[in-house]
Amino acid sequence: MKKERTEINELGEFGLIDLISKDIKLKHKNSVLGIGDDAAILDAGNEYLLISSDMLIENVHFDLTYFPLKHLGYKAVAVNISDICAMNGTANQITVNIGISNRFSVEAIQEIYNGIKEACEEYNIDLVGGDTCSSTSGLILSITAIGNCKKDNIVKRTGAKPNDIICVTGNLGAAFLGLKKLTIEKKLFLEDSNIKPELKDFQYAIQRQMTPKARIDIINKLNELKIVPTSMIDISDGLASELLHISKMSKVGINVFEDKIPIDKEIYNLAEKLNLNPLLAAFNGGEDYELLFTISQKDFEKVKDINEITYIGYVQDINKGNYLVTKAGESIEIEAQGWKHF
Ligand code: ADP
Ligand code: MG
């Protein structure tokens, strides 16, 4: 009899993670939260420990023809710190696993570590270990971040309640436009190596793609204001995908407004130049590493004048579904995105 074979893209990334996690029972009392959030939660007595891993793979997550090694090292750290922020925690340590081939010189590896160290300085992180392996399939960089959080302050993806306010930090879509511009310029260069890349207007977008910032500043600000969000997630895969995670995990519906989604003015202009829809860049682009969170209405007064925090909609009953209200007043259902990498 022929053995059954299921293709990975039949399940998608999230279906695959659901399958992996289905039969896993946590055995230890101090394993508070396992698979399914931005970081795992371990009970460390009077506080929680947080652990999160993220992997960057050459030609899947980055292309070394335009991605400087130092920036890559920086980004690999920042995206992990971002997951600790998404739990309302503080990252303190990282371990770094790196897969390399003899295509890379010692100097090249040092350059990656210069970026890693720069991020460790900026975010006050100790590099405490890792692993070094040879790789036959390009560069692999996998980082684990370890953080902590006061027990009362922990925020998961599961706590959003109907009538909560939905907020995002910073602005969205820029990292995707930066990536698009770089891939377009690479294509032009491969067709004609005399062509000089035209990146002048795209500095901000490219910087957002190459050196995303973990929003520690927002976590500190919320802490200062004594606001504990009811749910939170970082925006790695695009706003749509993260809204659906909050919806699924909190068992709630979502209603957000197109005209409230924060998109930088410059990004509108650049999107036009590239013939892209800026809303789609924000919704489906990803890699902005901003925070998406919900707060109860009583906390709204405290955040409404903070520049870097934008109210984009509200949480509703699960039966009402997940919708984006367009500028024209039309409600469009928010749908899951396919898996980009397969
Ligand atoms: P994020 O985008 O915040 O990094 P992911 O979507 O990568 O989160 O992961 C979601 C959850 O699934 C996390 O709890 C993560 O630890 C877990 N996870 C992802 N891949 C695996 C895996 N291969 N084995 C076990 N857990 C995994
Ligand atoms: Mg995350």
Summarize model confidence as the mean pLDDT.
94
The strands making up the biggest β-sheet line up spatially as 8-10-7-11-9-12-13
Uncertain segments: 338-342
CATH topology of the largest domain: Phosphoribosyl-aminoimidazole Synthetase, Chain A, domain 2
How many DSSP E strands? 13
Indicate the CATH class of the largest domain.
Alpha Beta
Q: Please give the radius of gyration in angstroms.
A: 20 Å
What is the total domain count? 2
Distance between the termini: 28 Å
Largest sheet: 7 strands, mixed
Number of helices: 10
Helicity, in percent? 25-40%
How would you sum up this structure, described in words?
The protein is 35% helix and 24% strand. By secondary structure, the chain is an alpha+beta fold. It folds into two domains: 129 residues, 60s Ribosomal Protein L30, Chain: A (2-Layer Sandwich); 169 residues, PurM-like C-terminal domain (Phosphoribosyl-aminoimidazole Synthetase, Chain A, domain 2, Alpha-Beta Complex). A seven-stranded mixed sheet has the order 8-10-7-11-9-12-13, sandwiched between helices. It has a six-stranded mixed sheet with strand order 1-2-3-6-4-5, covered by helices on one side. Helix 4 packs across helix 9. The C terminus is likely disordered. The structure holds adenosine-5'-diphosphate and magnesium ion. Adenosine-5'-diphosphate binds next to helix 1. The site of adenosine-5'-diphosphate (ADP) has 9 residues, from helix 1.
